[in-house]
Every structure is written in C-alpha cells, then in structure tokens.
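Weekly modeling sync, notes
Attendees: AB, CL, MP (scribe)

Item 1: holo prediction request
CL wants a bound-state model with nicotinamide-adenine-dinucleotide before deciding which constructs to order. AB pointed out that an apo prediction alone won't tell us much about the pocket. Agreed to run with the ligand included and paste results into these notes for async review.

Input as submitted:
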Amino acid sequence: MNILLTGGAGYIGSHIAVALTDAGHRISIVDNFVNSVPEAIVRVEKITGKNIVLHKTDVTDREDLTRILHDEKPDCVIHCAGLKSVGESVKKPLKYYRNNINTTLSLLESMKETGIERLVFSSSATVYGEDNIPPFTETMPKGRCANPYGWTKWMQEQIIEDVVKQLKISTVILRYFNPTGAHKSGLIGEEPNGLPNNLMPYILQVADGRREHLTVFGDDYNTPDGTCRRDYIHVMDLAEAHLKAAEYVEKNKGLDVFNIGRGIPCSVLELVKAFEEASEQTIKYEIGSRRDGDVQDIWADTSKAEEVLGWQVHRGINEMCQDAWNWQKKNPAGYAK
Ligand code: NAD
Ligand code: UD1
C-alpha cells in the first residue's frame, strides 16, 4: 500500500514508519517539526534501508495538504500529527484546540476533495471517563476528559465519526494506552521536551544522572503496592497495530474503534523495579503526594483488537525497559548530534 503518515517524524510516527516500511509498504510523511526533527526520518531510513518521502508541511494548511494528497494518491492516511503535552494543554488550551482540531478538519476536507477513502486515527485512552472500572472496553462511557488535550482527542473522534460516515471513508480509531520503549536499534525513540511529565522518560533521566531522583506520585492508592497502575505497551507493538489497522481498512468498510494496550496492569514501583533489572541501574525515588487528576487504575481490554484485527503483543515490560535504556544510552542528547 501507499500510506501517508501525518506526524511521522514524532515518537510514535517514526516507529510506525519503520513497521510499515519493513512490511513492504511505501510511506510518505507530512510533518511540520513542531515537536520533532528531520533527523528522526533519516534514522528511519537507516533502519529500513528505504527512502522515505517527506513533506515539511503543516497539516492545518489545507491547500498544501490537498496538493500533497493529490500528488501522493495514498491508499490510506494514518493521522498521528498533534500536540500531546497534557500540562501544556492546560496552560495553552487555545493552541491545543486550534492545532489538534484543525489538523483533523483540514485532513478530512482534503481527503474529501481528493477522494481518499481510508483513514487510521491516533486516539488515546484519555477519552475514557474517570469513573470506569478497568479493564476498559471500547464501549465504556467516554468524554469526561480531565484536560484540554484529552478533549481534543475526544472531539476529533466525534468529528471523524460524523464525517467518515457521510463521506464513506473506511476508518479505524486506535486508542493507545501507555506507549513506551524504543526500536531495538536504539536509533529512534522518545525525546521529551524539557522536564518529562511521563513516568518512563523521567526514569530514563534519573538513570542517566540528569535528575536526582524520581518522585512517585502517591503510595496510598488501593493497589497492592499503593501506587497507580497503567497499561504500558512497547511502541513497536503499537506500531504493528497500525499495520493491522491499515490492512483492515483496505478490506472493511465503516468505522471501528480498538484499544491498543497489553491489557496487563503495571504499578509505578513495578516499572521502577523492572527498569532497574533491565538496565542494571539504581533508580533513586521518593514518595511524594498524589498528582492532581491522576486515576488509580487504567488498563485495556484488548480482546477486540486481537480478535478483529488479528493483532498481538509480542514484547513485555522487560523489553520496553531494555529498549528505552538502549535508546537513552546511545542518544544522551536525543537526536542532536
Ligand atoms: P510527538 O509529538 O512525538 O509526534 C507528533 C508529531 O506531529 C510531531 O512530529 C509533530 O511535529 C507533528 N505535528 C504536530 N502538529 C502538527 C501539524 N499541525 N502539522 C504537521 N505536523 C504536526 O507525539 P507522539 O507521542 O508520537 O504522538 C503521536 C499521536 O499519538 C498524537 O496524536 C498523540 O495525541 C497520540 N497519542 C500519544 C500517546 C503517547 O503517550 N505518546 C498516547 C496516546 C495518544
Ligand atoms: C499520561 C497522560 C494521559 C495519556 C496517557 C497515555 C499526563 C498527565 N497524562 O497519563 O493524558 O492518555 O499518559 O499516553 O501526561 N508518575 C510518577 N512520577 C512521575 C511521573 C509519573 O509517579 O514523575 C506516575 C503517575 O502518577 C502515573 C504513572 O506514573 O500513576 C504513569 O504516569 P504517566 O506516564 O504520566 O501516564 P498517565 O498517568 O497514564
């Protein structure tokens, strides 16, 4: 297939580009590098040994995007472009609503104009309401989002649902749980901007000496060790779900939604311990107070993705930690040379 990937220079997009290229698909990327660097695509080319077509364009620029879709004539678009920092979205909600909603409006309008009929969208477990009891199924209540970022994801889902029905665009929405890890090569990985908010990037910076210690946000939850539990998934398993989703929209009409996680809860302290074992580093940590808005337990019911997409997870927590640490050791300054 000829697949156009928006946000393809980003953390998840670059891993999707590898998985799809390795499976024999032709990839073109649209990215404006607002949160990434062209070097990521050079690294994807190095891993795969294939050239990746790059369009440095803002997805919200509808005219430019329409021209690109017209020239590329993709069989399928995978839409990953978006801003993703929860904290920044609280400080700059307009920036988040404008960018994230407009990427989707612009893309759908351009797809309509050029007659492109297949779409895969990057959504998030953040769309599930706080009151759900895990494991989360796709049909559970959604939309009581805790921050503007979460609302942009849920609103994009709503827009997509209404538009693709009317335009008859075959669509898969993937709700990611907690992507982590990196490609085995250590050539591509996650490059957090400033102080990391998320757990694994923070652990990595404690391991490489940049941060003194990790603060564990609360150990008084009603869980076996008192810390919150999440559903960490290796970014290459997540990338492979996009391969299955692209194949699925090629053969199936309509709209479908899938959770993409491992379906196995892992607590903060379990992840710290697993990282220590995988990296042979000691992670200093202190117990702090709860983080505002944190939910005790989030993990997925992944049976639908397994049964309908035929997708399976192949990598566990140990491999996530090893691969994340390998990336960090080889790229202490991220993609900067
Ligand atoms: P990322 O920031 O690394 O990648 C996003 C990419 O989109 C970047 O390369 C950025 O430059 C690009 N981009 C943003 N706005 C753009 C625009 N207007 N035009 C062109 N390019 C634009 O983030 P990521 O972690 O790779 O996330 C990818 C997608 O997955 C996002 O939509 C995010 O909301 C979603 N998601 C991420 C996570 C996660 O934990 N990383 C979890 C759930 C969902
Ligand atoms: C984050 C996002 C959420 C997104 C999800 C999946 C935030 C605030 N939320 O939440 O929108 O849907 O990822 O990508 O970014 N922790 C610590 N110390 C730290 C960092 C985290 O103890 O320094 C704990 C948190 O309290 C949480 C767990 O580690 O219990 C995981 O945190 P994080 O990586 O931020 O993921 P989510 O909470 O799932």
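Recorded for review: The mean pLDDT is 96.
Action items: CL to compare against the apo run; MP to circulate these notes.
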